[in-house]
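My current task is to audit a protein record that another person submitted. What it holds is a sequence and that sequence's fold in token form. Thanks in advance; the entry in question is below.
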Amino acid sequence: MSFKKVDLSFQSCKSEYSEADVVIFSCPMDSTTSFRPGTRFAGNAIRVDSFGIEWYSPYRNMDLKDYRTADIGDLDLPIGLVEDALDMIYDTTKTILKDNKKPMMIGGEHLVTLPVFKAVVEKYPDVHMIHLDAHTDLRDEFFGRKLSHATVIRRCFDLVGPGKIYQFGIRSGDKHEFEWAGKGNTHLRKFDFEGLKEVVDSLKGKPVYITVDLDVLDPGVFPGTGTPEPGGMQYKDLLKAFDLFETLDNIVGADFVELNPYLDPSGASNAVAVKTLREMVLLLHK
């Protein structure tokens, strides 16, 4: 599999694929979205709006221009064919990992995390996941489907087993999902990021994958998402979490998902996503 440089890239992330250490790609899929679709448009909206923020991060004291990052653009996913689309995402991620680069994926709905994580697990069998989200995403089925944005973390659990997934900010889900998590299947923290430092400290030296559903943020901060949940985190809370992630020594991949750019005409949600991508790319380089 080969990748060509795209015409529209994120910020200064214009390295050739062959020389890059981190590879950005976006997955325009919202086939299982259960409420308000539109996350498939997130990738290019982020790229356009990325020209409105600085390349330098005062939070990381790092500048995107100093690092080798390739942006290979939107994957050409078949609309409506869920399993075919997931296979394409898996193949792309597997190639990136085989070439000893780190994947930085932009959703799309949260289900697109699954094939990325599957490829990561194959390369790093002892990988642990940190999951920031408003929703549990632990249903075994949703509307009769095993593959859904509401089942994605349960499917990730199927890949790694109990004790390797840490969930924070959770404030919505079916009762049985919370009960299932509480049986030692995942480490689930309701409502906030309390205890994240202790988790990060325990994961030093281990491979870690980070998935951020941006609806973990309060709708007042991030209204541009299909399933907004009041009572969420402030953006400063997310930045503090990233400060903790900066102390990890083996982040092997990351993603963020669930921006719907058409649900926030102000453009503020796009700005949140753009800034989040800058910080996450720099974390992967760190």
Summary: The chain has one domain: 17-285. The chain has a mean pLDDT of 96.
